[in-house]
């Protein structure tokens, strides 16, 4: 047999006498041997080193149980890795909720004036529910329908998580356009009740989540505050759906040290944008909210696709400026949230009402329950308690060694453990450091207020899916997307947009205001008005026979200009797009008051009563043109605005040597020029921005910016010279204090949220 022959052969060979010893190697052979050994040693040392520095091997992976761990690839699930502590029990974080019959609670309509919906029946399971819709959050009447259902079973939660409320259902319906995008223009404040039977302490934090039964996804609503006495949680949102409260058991002893790790699998080098936030948090021109919100959405719904970092790279793989699709997508994603972002940056909300423990535990709970990164809002509050006018949006995608790992679009492709891209937090100490960000590491801003923002504060999944689909075709196709062209003295037709006068490739002007003009052609829809954004400030311009123009204020330096050719919702996937830059070298405005409104064919006027006994009433009949004095630029009688009250740097008030004092501002509805039997309801928007303080040593400027919105329904051309008129055509008086600067006031202290009960 063959097997036997082999066996015998082996035995036979084993019984042979041993071979003679080999001859001693020659000197030449020794040299070859030493050379071979040297090569082997070099390879042993070099190969692991190359793998480590190339990223193929990661020595610092926080979830590593061995010496070397390969870098993560695109995850097949979004389940978080939690060490020590609970782990999710299902793949892809699919959650299914079984519930009983729906019980109707209340229904109420809200129009452009805003309003409050509240459940005051103490016998209702939804007692304590409250929804506050601010003025101008919607331009139409929408109907809220509120109901609930008992939850009989839920599958897909982490082992240490459990349901802590009814399934709360909030439906909002309006026009077909509103129903398509399902988004409010300003944040809506929501307070929801959870089950009072649950013991609610820091070891078992309760937070609310959106539930999307079509995808089986839970998504954190974010967190503003909690009232444990009445068992309610308050957050802000831009859209509504089904909500459920989830309780998560945490180990506070581990959170007091550095032994607790949560990892969603997100990595900036793979799942973040390749392009940086090409605007800046120093000006409102940044795109941070849109960028982090889209990155989170993409990771949640397209995690099996190419990583976002590689998805939209075009041209030179090492250069982001030629990635036209990514740049346009980031701009569209952010500008669609312009109303939300303006509210977050310019309106004071109770950002610091929640203490550091509540915020940190909210971020952790969100990552554990959803397996996804969590949105973080950043603000800066001075020693005086005033908020500075800048803000920023980032994400936390993990927690390890007592720090939250941060994805910051200003610093793309950062690594886990990058000390500059972390927010230190322990249960015992809270937030013990400020967070620094900016256009570059050297050009930095300091943030000391941290809060938990919900991703649906700025968009819905279907909104971003529409942008994703349009980006698949690189936003191209003249039959779908209108073509936007700016016009200036060198174009045909000519226009008023500043031209490039010094041949450096950038439009420039010495004026602190300009009229942007252009044409819009093609596209699937006829455009009757277009949106013009200057450093994220929105203006609306009528489009007549394909031509538009609008006057806008400019800041000294580079002004980011975006034209979004749509008279519909800013999420319109077919909207035309153009981005450009206008450099202003004029004397900077120390103070600007801007009035805009959302309706055409209407005459609305800005009125400013200046401080002091010699203060003037500035309006269309007294524009105040005078050397070195503030003035009104124009009287817009056609609709939309803008109208501006300007005070350039170095100007002063009558009878004073400066601009300091209390300004009173009002809006007056002068006339409706539409053909409707009933006058249009006007949704107006005021924005005030002034230079509060300039550090003479560093040159850093501190600006204060505030905004206000309102509704007017009854036009009147009578008594417009009386600033204090009580006529219904006038808004209430808005007082703005422009104080004498105190340098101490503008110091930013350590995080002030570390005050625990």
How many strands appear in the DSSP assignment? 44
Structural class: alpha+beta
State the helicity in percent bands.
10-25%
Give start-end ranges of low-pLDDT stretches. Answer: 1-77, 84-92, 280-285
> What shape does the CA trace take?
globular
- Summed up, the domain count is 5
How much beta, percentage-wise? Answer: 25-35%
Mean residue pLDDT: 82
Please report the distance between the alpha carbons of the first and last residues.
87 Å
Q: Cα-atom Rg, whole angstroms?
A: 31 Å
The largest sheet, given as strand count, sense and whether it forms a barrel, is: 9 strands, antiparallel
Tell me the number of helical segments per DSSP (H or I, 4 or more residues long). 11
């Amino acid at each position: 047999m063959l097997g036997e022959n082999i066996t015998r052969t082996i035995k036979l060979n084993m019984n042979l006498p041993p071979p003679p010893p080999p001859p001693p190697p020659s000197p030449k052979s020794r040299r070859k041997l030493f050379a071979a050994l040297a090569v082997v040693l070099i390879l042993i040392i070099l190969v692991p080193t190359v793998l480590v520095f190339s990223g193929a091997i990661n020595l610092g992976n926080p979830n590593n149980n061995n010496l070397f761990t390969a870098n993560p690839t695109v995850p097949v699930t979004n389940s978080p890795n939690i060490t020590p502590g609970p782990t999710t029990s299902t793949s892809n974080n699919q959650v299914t909720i079984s519930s009983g019959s729906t019980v109707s609670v209340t229904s109420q309509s809200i129009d452009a004036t805003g309003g409050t919906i509240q459940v005051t029946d103490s016998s209702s399971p939804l007692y304590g529910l409250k929804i506050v819709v601010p003025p101008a959050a919607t331009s139409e009447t929408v109907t809220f329908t509120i109901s609930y259902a008992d939850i009989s079973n839920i599958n897909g939660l982490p082992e240490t998580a459990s349901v802590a409320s009814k399934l709360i259902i909030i439906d909002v319906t309006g026009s077909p356009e509103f129903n398509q995008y399902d988004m409010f223009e300003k944040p809506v404040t929501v307070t929801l009740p959870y089950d009072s039977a649950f013991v609610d302490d820091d070891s078992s934090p309760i937070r609310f989540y959106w539930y999307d039964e079509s995808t089986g996804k839970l998504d954190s609503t974010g967190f503003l505050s909690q009232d444990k006495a009445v068992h309610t949680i308050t957050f802000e949102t831009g859209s509504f759906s089904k909500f459920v409260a989830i309780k998560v058991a945490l180990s506070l002893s581990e959170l007091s040290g550095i032994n607790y790790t949560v990892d969603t699998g997100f990595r900036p080098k793979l799942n973040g944008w390749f392009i940086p936030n090409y605007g800046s948090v120093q000006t409102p021109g940044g795109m941070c909210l849109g960028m982090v919100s889209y990155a989170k959405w993409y990771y949640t719904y397209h995690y099996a696709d190419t990583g976002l970092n590689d998805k939209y790279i075009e041209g030179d793989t090492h250069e982001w400026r030629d990635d036209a699709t990514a740049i346009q997508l980031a701009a569209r994603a952010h500008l669609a949230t312009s109303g939300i972002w303006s509210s977050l940056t310019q309106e004071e909300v109770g950002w610091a009402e929640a203490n550091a423990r509540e915020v940190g535990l909210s971020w952790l709970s969100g990552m554990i329950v959803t397996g996804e990164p969590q949105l973080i809002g950043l603000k800066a509050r001075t020693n005086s308690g005033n908020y500075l006018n800048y803000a920023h949006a980032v994400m936390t995608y993990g927690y390890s060694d007592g720090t939250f790992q941060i994805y910051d679009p200003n610093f793309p492709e950062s690594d886990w453990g990058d000390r500059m891209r972390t927010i230190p937090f322990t249960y015992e100490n809270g937030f013990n450091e400020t967070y620094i960000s900016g256009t570059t590491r050297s050009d930095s801003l300091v943030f000391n207020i941290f809060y938990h923002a919900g991703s649906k504060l700025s968009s819905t999944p279907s909104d971003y899916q529409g942008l994703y689909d349009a980006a698949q075709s690189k936003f191209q196709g003249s039959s779908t997307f209108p073509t936007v062209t700016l016009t200036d003295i060198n174009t045909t037709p000519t226009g008023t947009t500043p031209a490039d006068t010094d041949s450096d490739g950038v439009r420039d002007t010495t004026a602190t205001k300009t009229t942007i003009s252009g044409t819009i052609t093609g596209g699937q829809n006829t455009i009757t008005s277009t949106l013009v954004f200057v450093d994220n400030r929105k203006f609306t311009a009528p489009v007549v026979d394909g031509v538009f123009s609008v006057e806008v204020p400019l800041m000294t330096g580079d002004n980011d200009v975006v034209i979004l050719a749509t008279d519909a919702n800013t999420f319109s996937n077919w909207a035309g797009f153009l981005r450009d830059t206008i450099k202003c070298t004029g004397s900077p405005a120390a103070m600007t008051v801007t009035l805009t409104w959302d309706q055409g064919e209407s005459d609305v006027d800005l009125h400013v009563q200046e401080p002091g006994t010699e203060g003037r009433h500035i309006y269309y009949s007294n524009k105040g043109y005078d050397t070195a004095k503030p003035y009104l630029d124009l009287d817009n009688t056609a609709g939309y605005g803008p109208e501006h009250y300007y005070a350039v740097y170095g100007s002063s008030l009558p009878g004073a040597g400066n601009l300091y004092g209390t300004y009173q501002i009002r809006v007056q509805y002068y006339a409706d020029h539409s053909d409707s039997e009933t006058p249009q309801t006007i949704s107006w928007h005021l924005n005030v921005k002034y230079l509060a303080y300039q550090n003479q040593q560093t040159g850093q400027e501190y600006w204060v910016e505030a905004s206000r919105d309102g509704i007017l329904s009854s036009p009147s051309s009578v008594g417009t010279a009386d600033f204090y008129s009580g006529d219904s055509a006038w808004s209430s008086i808005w007082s703005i204090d422009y104080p004498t600067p105190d340098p101490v006031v503008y110091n930013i202290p350590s995080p002030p949220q570390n005050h625990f009960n």
